[in-house]
């Protein structure tokens, strides 16, 4: 399951205005045909988490965390694409030469699974990008925040999700990477997207992984523009970045607060309204961890409960 920006326009009927640059996407009153075809009314609504997308799959014979890396067009191709959009406004009609139009990517790069293929080559989405992944190596400074939430020696990851026995309680735990294989997740934390959830500090950064679809929305209103707007503005559960509907056919349908003219980030997020418990269970590993790593820090506050995510202070 790969979250793609191509699905952003499936939630409500959207009329993009391409003003090169920029363009603004707003939701209207009408549900799009694509959303209806995907049976959005029977889909599972979940919280859209504000972070950076990750993926877990095999690399070098073991489960690995992969970071999102889109293959983008070179300057000449990008200029040609923008000029085409300005005249035609339909990116699907544009002809790409994948072998010549795009910047090089690392040899270990792989395209996202849902990307269309033509003659064995992955094709760009309507934004002119080819979404894909690169493995997060332990000592790669570019992805140091990604690598802080995984330990490849013990094949575990730091994961935030609901407590299995109490949906009103969040839990931070060490999860085997093998349990996350072929899943996409969101990396959140101090140095990701301006830290909208207030995790950690500059001196003591804190990052966590959240599986996509982990936070199901229980009391979503009808799919009407004004009802959704009221829900986002006035309901505690609506203090989120957006909604992702998981359809039975695998389709992801999204709406962001910005599509409804609302601001994000906001001061008090729904994620920070719940208590959180630390449940690491690292007795077999604690003495093998590096003293500065997050796994070691969390082991020192294992079984402790906090009023909200913002209240977690690591004993550094």
Automatic annotation (TrEMBL):
UniProt-listed InterPro entries: RLIG1
Cofactor: Mg(2+); Mn(2+)
UniProt keyword annotation of Ligase present: yes
GO molecular function: ATP binding; RNA ligase (ATP) activity
Gene Ontology BP, a term: response to reactive oxygen species
One Pfam family in the UniProt entry: RLIG1
Keyword Ligase attributed: yes
Enzyme Commission numbers on file: 6.5.1.3
Reactions listed under catalytic activity: ATP + (ribonucleotide)n-3'-hydroxyl + 5'-phospho-(ribonucleotide)m = (ribonucleotide)n+m + AMP + diphosphate
Keywords from the UniProt entry: ATP-binding, Ligase, Nucleotide-binding, RNA repair
Task performed by this protein: Functions as an RNA ligase, in vitro. The ligation reaction entails three nucleotidyl transfer steps. In the first step, the RNA ligase reacts with ATP in the absence of nucleic acid to form a covalent ligase-AMP intermediate and release pyrophosphate. In step 2, the ligase-AMP binds to the nucleic acid and transfers the adenylate to the 5'-PO4 terminus to form an adenylylated intermediate. In step 3, the RNA ligase directs the attack of the 3'-OH on the 5'-phosphoanhydride linkage, resulting in a repaired 3'-5' phosphodiester and release of AMP.
Protein name in UniProt: RNA ligase 1
Gene expressing this chain: CUNH12orf29
């Amino acid at each position: 399951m790969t979250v793609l920006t191509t699905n952003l326009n499936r939630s409500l009927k959207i009329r993009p205005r391409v003003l090169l640059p920029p363009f603004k996407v707003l939701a209207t009153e009408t549900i799009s045909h694509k959303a209806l075809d995907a049976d959005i009314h029977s889909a599972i609504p979940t919280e859209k988490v504000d972070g950076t997308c990750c993926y877990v799959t095999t690399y070098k014979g073991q489960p690995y965390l992969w970071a999102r890396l889109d293959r983008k067009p070179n300057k000449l191709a990008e200029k040609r694409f923008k000029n085409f959009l300005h005249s035609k406004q339909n990116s699907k009609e544009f002809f790409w030469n994948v072998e010549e139009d795009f910047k090089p990517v690392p040899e270990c790069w792989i395209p996202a699974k849902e990307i269309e293929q033509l003659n064995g080559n992955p094709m760009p989405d309507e934004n002119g990008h080819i979404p894909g992944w690169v493995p997060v190596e332990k000592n790669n400074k570019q992805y140091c925040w990604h690598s802080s939430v995984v330990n490849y020696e013990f094949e575990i990851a730091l994961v935030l999700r609901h407590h299995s026995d109490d949906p009103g309680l969040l839990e931070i735990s060490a999860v085997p990477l093998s349990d996350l294989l072929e899943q996409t997740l969101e990396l959140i934390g101090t140095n990701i997207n301006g830290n909208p959830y207030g995790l950690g500090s500059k001196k003591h950064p804190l990052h966590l992984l959240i599986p996509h679809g982990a936070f199901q929305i229980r009391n979503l209103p009808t799919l009407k523009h004004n009802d959704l707007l009221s829900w986002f503005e006035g309901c505690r559960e609506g203090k989120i970045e957006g909604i992702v509907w998981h359809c039975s056919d695998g389709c992801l349908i999204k709406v962001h607060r910005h599509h409804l003219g609302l601001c994000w980030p906001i001061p008090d997020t729904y994620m920070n309204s719940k208590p959180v418990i630390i449940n690491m269970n690292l007795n077999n590993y604690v003495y093998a961890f590096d003293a500065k790593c997050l796994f070691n820090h969390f082991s020192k506050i294992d079984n402790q409960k906090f009023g909200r995510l913002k209240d977690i202070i690591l004993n550094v």
